[in-house]
Amino acid sequence: MRNIYLLCCLLGFVLSSSKSLAQVDQCLVHLDKSFYVSGELMWFNLYLPVANRGHAFTIRVGIVDKNGATIETFFLATQGKSQANGYYKIPYNCNSGVYQLVFIGMESSTKSPVVLAKIAVPIYNDLEKLDLAQTTTSKSIPYPAYTLNDIRVDIELDKAAYQNRETVQVLVRVKDKNGNPIKSNLSVSVSDWALSGASALPKSSFEPGFSIPADGLSNQVFAQVKLQHETDNQGQNLVAIFFPQDWKMLYTSSKQEVFTVEMPSFVGSKPIQFLGHPNPAIQVQLLDPFQSPASPALAYTPGILQYLELSRQRKKIYQLYASLETQLKDEVIPESKIPLTPDRTLQMSEYESFEDLALFFREISTPLTLKLERKSGRYQAKMYNPGNFIDYPSAPIFILDGKVTRDADFIARLKTNQIEQIDLFYQPDQLFANFKAIGRSGVVNIRSKSGMAIPADEEADVFSINGLQTPVEFPTLLADQLRTKTGQPFFRPQVYWNPNLETDAQGLARFSFVQTDDWSHFQIEVLVQAENGAFGRGVAEYKVTGN
Questions:
Q1: Which is nearest to 422 in space by CA: 386, 447, 449?
Q2: From residue 202, how far is each of 300, 469, 495 by CA, in Å?
């Protein structure tokens, strides 16, 4: 292990070439580290101007690769707070490069995206082959540095040196320039400074963003889409957006080629589907709001090369013990439930003797009929309303495993033994409340046994959208975990991360964590946002030795 001499507590660390960040009306991004390696977790906190406190809105987060392509996107909900935090699991097979972490909101009035902040994130793949003779000197890296010194941040440790697997107790004092304690929000990062500090890559772990409106951002999940029609008469068409997660349809005019879709908030990944009405022939393209120019080349300093070598060794150790370096708890995503009550349900296990649905609906009396037109050779569908003894004027729609199709011929030819259940909805109140124009003539919900696709031209209008990210806590080492696994070493470059600390009325905040098995010196970094929006930063370093 590395045995590095103890550096005394460093408070209010300032670089001579740094830029002072004193604006209280702009965003600030804080990362748990200044660079990452494939397979690691990137933790981040976005501080918002305090004028946004009390205004709930959603933030769309995008990870953009070195070529300017978005590789991941999800949403965070501010819930009226002046900060929002999340994480990104870097794939093990990602390519090395300088990525961008981008945050955007959506203006409620104009429905246009607003960039809140972005920060460059160097990511290295420790399995890529490198020319070790070609390294970069630290002095040639053009990353800007910033200082946060509007308020004073003092970090106090209960002692100067610790042993591995010992609990570290930390006290943070926050004061204004006159020495008065102030209430504030804190984000805390503790990392192996000998391994991932400025000697490896002299890049700040934080970066300022931009000013944003206080109360003009959308509080919904959103996406921008571009529509193309085969007809020039676009003003006469509506576009329906179907959300299978809550069985709702929203409508917008297709008169505008590019428009914003705002949808009910949800957690995890959900499909949405676009449907033209009355003209079904539309082509939909989801637009990428995160597109950025290509990033500069990565820097490979001697410290980075050492980090990559030790990263490979850590992965071998965790592979040997069949565990992960940072294990997250499984996300629990609520199951979607259909809010409507079926007017009639058919359990198809009772009718598997019928070859297909066309034969089934011909022989079994239901409000739905499938009739073969001899001229076209295709089946057409009609729904009967038993309440007023009248056929609906147009064809019903079919929802097959959460996707809408209006192709009755396709449905009629489905094999009965592939279908689990069919629900018929024909009460006009339910239909109008949930589907309006497109589903007003009936809805047929079909659940297959193994999952089925709808016709290709309709499948092309189904997109997967990532909603709100499930909040998770940083997986710090626990004392019980170490006691039960005494023979397993725990090496981590990132020891602790907490973006949700607050000081009390005396300007004090306390936290603790269990130290890893690394013998090194570590840095505690605390970023602070006061109630008036001013920022401050404090750092302290301590040493860890073996038992």
A1: 447
A2: 12, 31, 20
H/E stretch holding 363 reads helix 357-363
Tell me the one-letter amino acid at 526.
V
| Cα gap 268→402, rounded to integer Å | 16
Cα gap 45→25, rounded to integer Å: 17
Residue partners of 19: CB distance under 8 A and separation at least 6: 144, 145, 146, 147
d(CA 536, CA 275): 51
Query: Cβ contacts of residue 99 below 8 Å, gap of 6+?
Result: 63, 64, 65, 66, 120, 121, 122, 123, 295
Six-digit token pair at 219?
């509080």
Q: Round to whole Å and give the CA distance between 417 and 355.
A: 8
Instruction: Note if the pTM is more than 0.90.
Output: no
pLDDT tens by residue, 446-479: 999 998 999 999 999 999 999 999 888 898 887 7
End-to-end C-alpha distance for the chain, whole angstroms: 13
pLDDT tens-place string over residues 42-54? 999 999 999 889 9
Taking only Cα atoms into account, the Rg of the chain, rounded to an integer number of angstroms, comes to 29
Chain-centroid distance of CA 535 in Å reads 26
Residue 330: helix, strand or coil by DSSP? Answer: coil
- For residues 121-156, one letter each, b for 16 or more C-beta atoms within 10 angstroms of the residue's C-beta and e for the rest, the string is bbbbbbeeeeeeeeebebeeeeeeebbbbbbbbbbe
Q: What is the pLDDT of residues 352-408, one digit of tens each?
A: 889 999 999 999 999 999 999 999 999 999 999 888 888 899 999 999 999 999 999
Cα 146 to Cα 85, 202, 205, 537: the distances in Å are: 21, 12, 10, 10
